Amino acid sequence: MSKDSNTTRLLDDAGRFFATTRWTQVFAARGGESPQSTEALEALCRAYWRPLYSWLRRQGRTAHDAQDLTQEFFARLLEKDWLSAADREKGRFRTFLLVALKRFLSDEWDRSRAQKRGGGRPFEPLDTELIERRLSGTDQEAPERVYERQWALTLLERALGRLREEFEQAGRRDEFDAMKDYLTAGRGEIPYSQVAARLNLEEGAARVAVHRLRKRFREIFRLEIAETVARDEDIDDELRYLVAALAR
Question: 17: domain range?
Answer without folding.
Answer: 5-247
